[in-house]
Protein 1
Amino acid sequence: MKPITKTIITSLFFSVCLVFMFSGSSSAENYKSLEGLKSAKTIFDFRIDNPTMALVHIKLIQETYKDKAINSLSAKPDFVVIFMGPSVRLVSSDRGMFSEADKKVIGEMDKLLAAMSKDGIRLEACMVAAGMFGVDPGKILPEIHHVGNGWVSSTGYQDNGYALIPAF
C-alpha cells in the first residue's frame, strides 16, 4: 500500500471515529435544563398498577439513572421511587391476585428493582397504601424501604430540592 493511501485511510478512520464519538454522546450540554446543576435529584411518584406498564416505566427510570447526560454532572444522580396507591401490590411477594402472565412480568420487575437498589436508587413503599390495598408489609420486597405515608416522604424530598416526576 502506498504511503499516501495509508495516510488517507488512517485519517478517514480517525475522522469517522471522532464523528461517532461526538454525535452519539449525550452530555449535559445537550440539555439546557441541566446547565449549572451539580446533581440530578429526582423522586418518582409511582402509582402504576398494570404490571406490563409498570415494567416499562421501571426500565425507563433505570435508563434515565444511567443516562450519560445525568451522569456527566459532577455528583452521582440521587433517585427515589415511591410506590403509592395500587402499585404497592406489585412490590409484594403475594402474587395471588395476578394472572400467570402478569406474575412473569412482575418477576422481571423484581430483578430490575433489585438491580436498581444495588445501583443506589432508593425504593420506598407507602404503608398507608399498603393498608388500603390489603398488602402485608412483611411481604414487601426486601430492597424496598417502608415509609408511613408516601406523601409525607414525597413532601420531604421535594422540600430538599428533588424534582417530582409522576408515574401514573
Protein 2
Amino acid sequence: MPQTFDPVLLGSSIFGSFLFHLASKCGLGDVKLVIVIINFVVGGSSVNRYLAMVGIISGISIAIHYMRTRSMKGEIAFAPALCGAVLAVRPLSIL
C-alpha cells in the first residue's frame, strides 16, 4: 500500500526525533533513519505500532548487550531495532 506524504507527520517526526537525540545522545544517523522510516515506509497509520516495536526490540538489544558485557558501558547499535521494527510492522511491504 503506497504511503501519502503528510507534512504534519514529517514536521512532528523531525521535531520528536531531534528531541529524542538531545535527551538520549543517540546518533544523528539513527535520527535521520527513523525520520525516513516513519514518513516514507511505515506511514501515519502504523506509527504507534512501529514505535512500540522499536521499544520492544531495543529492550531486547539492550538486554543482550548487558548479558554479553555485564555493563551498560559502550555503544549499543540502534539501527537493527529500527529496521527490525519495520519488518515486524509491515512484513509484506518488502516483497
Protein 3
Amino acid sequence: MENKRAHLAMIQAVVNRMSVNSFLLKGWSVVIVSALFALAAGSSQGALVAVALFPAVAFWALDGYFLRQERLFRSLFDRVRQLDDDKITFAMSTASENHEVAPWIRVAFSKTLITFHGALVASILAVMIIVFVKAH
C-alpha cells in the first residue's frame, strides 16, 4: 500500500502545480491587460487597447493547456488509485489518458475558462469599440 500512496502523492503534486499555474496565468492576464489599458489611457493611443488582445488570448490558450494537463493527471490518479499495490510502476506518463480527456480546444472553451477569459476578451473588445467611436 505504501507504493500506491507514494505514487498518488507524486501525481497529486503535479495536479497541484497545474492548478497553481492556472491561477497565476489568470492573475498575470489581468495585470498585463490592465497595464496596457493604463498605458493606452495615459498616452492617448487607442492601438494599445488592441494590443491587449494578444496576451489575453495567449494566456487563455495557456490556461486551457494547463487545465487539460490537470485533467489528464486527475485521470491518471483515478487509474492508479484502482491498481493493486504490486502493479504500481511510478509511471507519470498521461499518454494512456488522452482518450479519457477532451481535446485542448474543448478544454480551452470549457465553462470555467470562458467565464473568466471570455469576460476579459469581451472587456477588451468593448473598450476597443469605445475608443474607436470616440476617435471618429
Protein 4
Amino acid sequence: MVTDSNSVMARWRNHFSQLFSVHDVNDVRHTEIHTAVPLVPEPSAFEVEMAIDKLKRHKSSGNDQFPAELIKAGDRTIHIQIYKHINSIWNKWNYLRS
C-alpha cells in the first residue's frame, strides 16, 4: 500500500502516462493542453442581455458594488458597454491561455 504523497503522485503519473500514452511527464501540474479553438465560446450580446434579465433584485451587490437594480434599469447603451467589457475580459483571458 502506497501512503506517502510522493509515491502516490508517482503511481498516478505512471497510471495516466500509460492511459493517455503521455511520455516524459515529470510534473503533472506543468502539463499543458493546447487547442486550436477556444474551449469556451465568446459570449454573445444576447447571452449578456439574458444574464442581465435574470439578475435578482434586492440582493447584496458584489465586489463591484453595483446593485442588480442599477444594471437592470440601464438602457441598451449601458448593456452594450457591459457586453463589450465582458468580451474584452474574455479575449484577454483567451489570449493569456494560448
